[in-house]
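Researcher: Here's my situation. A collaborator sent me these components and asked whether they could plausibly form a single complex. I don't have experimental data yet, so a predicted model of the whole assembly would be a useful starting point for our discussion.
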Amino acid sequence: MALDRWISWIILCIALAYGYAAFFTMDQLLPPFMQRNPIWPSTFPKVLSVLAVVTSLIILLGLEKPSGEEKTPDIDYRRLGDYNIGQALMLLGMMVVYALTLRPLGFFISTIGFITISAIILGERKLYVLIPVSAVATFVIWYLVEQVLGIFLRPLPIFF
Amino acid sequence: MIEGLLIGLETAFSLQNLLMVIGGCLIGTFIGMLPGLGPMSIIAIMIPVAITLGDPAAALILLAGVYYGAIFGGSTSSILLNAPGVAGTVATSFDGYPMARAGMAGKALTIAAISSFAGGTVGAILLMVFAPALSSVALLFHSAEYFALMVVGLSAIAAFAGTGQVAKALLMTILGLIMATVGEGALFNMPRFTMGLMDLQSGFSFITLAMAIFALPEALFLVMNPARSAQGDSGKIENLRISKKEARAIAPVIGRQSIQGFFIGVLPGAGATIASFLGYAVERNLASEEERKEFGHGSIKGLSAPETANNAACTGSFVPLLTLGIPGSGTTAILLGALIALNVNPGPRLMVDEPQIFWAVIISMYIGNLILLILNLPLIPYIAKILAIPRNYLIPFILFFTMMGSYIGQNNATELLILVGFGICATVLRFADYPLAPLLIGFILGRMLEDNFSRSMQLYDGVAFVLERPMTLGLLVLAGLLVIVPSYRARRAKARAAGVADGD
């Protein structure tokens, strides 16, 4: 089964769960005076879940004829190993690490670390250029966001 | 009117006010390039500065400059990095980014600048002529018509569905609508589908979703396939020129879209986003067969349509603000706050009581546009150089800016995890050739659609409003036609290719 049909199967499952929540669990919480309304909080989700189930079934069962011409995709997922998938996964990991360290370690350390390590993952080796560039960029952005725009970014680690 | 114009010219052409416009445009352009900071937040930030000026005309002129600059800056990041920071520039990235990838970044930015200029200028002229009359038309639009208008906006998805892709585009739209129902809606005041998580109480944030859908997969693709980042000579200046043929191609688009965008912008609540999506869809439907194939792959028409409509709509949104005192969009709501703080009461009396402010604003819009064009055309080669930054530096910075965009808005680190999660989902969807733009359109329009639908259901105690309000019915029929006509044409083309006679 092709990837797009697997995806439509997953979306079908999501839509069924969503529909179950909309049809069977939401209305019990509704106070009686709201039940006299012509439209309930669950009305729109009910319609959407039905539509989503129908369309995902159309894709899953292959009811719509695909167009004859095969497009050459940007990335062929059947040959994922041929691409730099490891680098991409490591960068995603770095983003997660950044999200988790931004608060506790403060903006400066986590941002300089993120930019430097990501560039090293991508193959940058000139550390004497990389570290100053990331430090200056981090400071400029912090200055812009915190001082000029007045949006708070904790600059230093939490224990300072 | 001529008298008013002269008053406005006199006010706007003082040295101080000209400096205000120039400063505003520059600030707006540079801050607007950062994803996550749209016109709304920049104007909110500039209000204290504007108020300390003391002179309402000068303050408004400064804010108008910032507004235009921010819109142009926003299109810059969606063209160069596929990172639309504002809902109104999402449609710009559909064709702007492919152009930048094909090595025509300079040209794409030039087209965007010229289209914005034309849209804003035509909008300002229309505002001058029609403002008083339009205020009464805008009041005719009730929630039922807004609902229908959103449906027309959603029919834009037909524009993204290639042959054999209609179900996928539809499914993505519905998924976007489903995601819009998460969180606490304004009308019901009860949390829905939050699964008990406090972080989902206010729903998914638009900026996070936009970054996760467009910018993040693009950056990952650049990592996975280094050949993609071979941009060629995108930073060179000679690519800036627009040939006579291209100018002739986009001229009618600009003409149509500046008028259409302006009138959509006049309706409170519709605004630049719908104007840009509709503009894109309409132009795609009007384009000839071979031109339509280019849409989404770097069509200059597809780039100039949303840019023009977007700017014309921004100008249009000043009509309800200045004539009725009703802000039609988030940005004009903030401007209304600034006006009141400056002791100006927008409304029907504004034109009579303080004509110099009314006319100075209109003239300053025109000047703002002109200055933006003059300032930005020489800057374009340098802005386009962003793409010439070495890949090892560019990619970490793109990732960093996407994260900053979604973090600044909410100041919540969970938002970053949501960003990464959706980014992975979006990348997998792109592998399987699902169109992602309809997802975002569904998400943006979903909440407005449901609110307006519920409101009209409550007003009419049922779905009777569809039949009782002719304008609603008309708009719904139009939406149906927008979906049906292209697929009918496609089917006929297929039948013709298969050798079946046309019957004519």
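Model: Some features of this prediction you could bring to your collaborator: Chain A has five helices and no strands. The mean pLDDT of chain A is 82.
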